[in-house]
Specification:
The strands form three sheets. Strands 3-2-1-4-5-6-12-9 form an eight-stranded mixed beta sheet, sandwiched between helices. By secondary structure, the protein is of the alpha/beta class. The model has no long low-confidence stretch (mean pLDDT 96). It has helices spanning 14-24, 44-57, 81-84, 106-116, 131-139, 169-173, 175-182, 193-196, 203-210, 215-235, 245-252, 299-310, and strands spanning 4-10, 30-37, 65-67, 122-126, 147-153, 188-191, 200-201, 240-241, 257-262, 264-266, 277-279, 291-297. Helix 5 packs across helix 7. The protein contains twelve helices and twelve strands. Bound molecules: calcium ion. Calcium ion (CA) binds next to loops.
């Protein structure tokens, strides 16, 4: 089987960083055509810089990084420095990137790449607000039918909100873009908080990263050390959830995950519940299913995969 061609759309973020490292460590399964940065956890200038820091950390400075949208389609940008720190990648001390950002706008890169490939051969992997993807779909609707699949981190049903009582951060930041994506008809796999909150970096799991004894292992351990203080306080959990790596792990080992193919709609009107993913988990409507909504993960298997792959970098 040849490697699956993907575009990673991202707002790094410590957990985005681990997702990117996992993808770059897995060339047999994943061919990263490009990384497109979007504003989200921190402003665009930082997500673009962080994406390049991560590629260099992985020893893959030839990876193409593009800058995309610096604000949501119809709202003011909301960021999450309270979780990720001022730079978005607080924790390890990593060198500034030498890598340059590509000249092309991320949205145009997404459009041109999909147009240049056969239908059903490129997968989109959004790890942040869906602004770049929503904008690309609006600007070039012809590319929609060419997308193989969208595997994204976002939303929540049983765990409900982490930025408002009703909404998960990525969807809340740009509900309009999320609405475009969920209504697009493209096959979607969703990694909501319901599953990512089961992928917790406990102390032994963090030790396993650190014990790799490599630059990457140490950096990942330090990132999760920083990241976990927030979730430990908030949820009284055993460690930080590794949200975004669920997306790239799914591409490598989908059998680690299980969920339901259901209808998911995005709230775009009510300020109270703005960005809520209204997931018909119990199938109480006759609305057409549009997403595989993941609910469970083999967490031990997930962390074994991560450690094994990160050891390759
Ligand atoms: Ca992210």
């Amino acid at each position: 089987m040849s490697a699956r061609k993907i575009i990673i759309d991202t707002d790094p973020g410590q957990d985005d960083a681990v997702a990117i490292l996992l993808a770059l460590a897995s060339p047999e399964e994943i061919d990263v055509l490009g990384i497109t940065a979007v504003a989200g956890n921190v402003p665009l200038a930082l997500t673009s810089k962080n994406a390049r820091i991560v590629c260099q950390l992985a020893g893959k400075p030839d990876t193409k990084v593009f800058e995309g949208c610096d604000r949501p389609m119809g709202r003011e940008l909301v960021t999450a420095e309270h979780v990720h720190g001022k730079t978005g990648l607080n924790g390890p001390v990593l060198p500034d990137p030498v890598m340059q950002v590509e000249d092309q706008h991320a949205v145009d890169f997404i459009i041109d790449t999909l147009r240049a490939h056969d239908a059903g051969t490129v997968t989109l992997c959004p790890l942040g607000p869906l602004t770049n993807i929503g904008t690309a779909f609006e600007k070039a609707p012809d590319i929609i039918e060419k997308v193989q699949e969208i595997v994204l981190m976002g939303g929540a049903y049983f765990e409900v909100g982490n930025i408002t009582p009703a909404a998960e951060f990525n969807i809340y930041v740009d509900p309009q873009a999320a609405d475009i994506v969920f209504k697009s008809g493209v096959p979607i796999v969703v990694m909501p908080l319901d599953v990512t909150h089961k992928a917790l970096v406990t102390k032994p799991r963090n030790d396993a990263f650190r014990n790799l004894g490599t630059k990457v292992g140490t950096a990942v351990a330090e990132m999760t050390d920083f990241f976990e203080r927030f979730d430990k306080e908030k949820y009284d959990s055993d460690g930080a959830p590794l949200h975004d790596p669920c997306v790239t792990a799914y591409l490598i080992q989908p059998g680690l995950f299980s969920g339901r193919h259901i209808n998911v709609e995005i709230e775009t009107q009510s300020e109270l519940t703005m960005g809520m993913t209204v997931a018909d988990w119990w199938r109480v409507t006759d609305r057409t299913p549009n997403a595989m909504f993941i609910g469970d993960v083999d967490a031990d298997g997930f962390f074994s995969l991560l450690v094994e792959r990160l050891s390759r970098l």
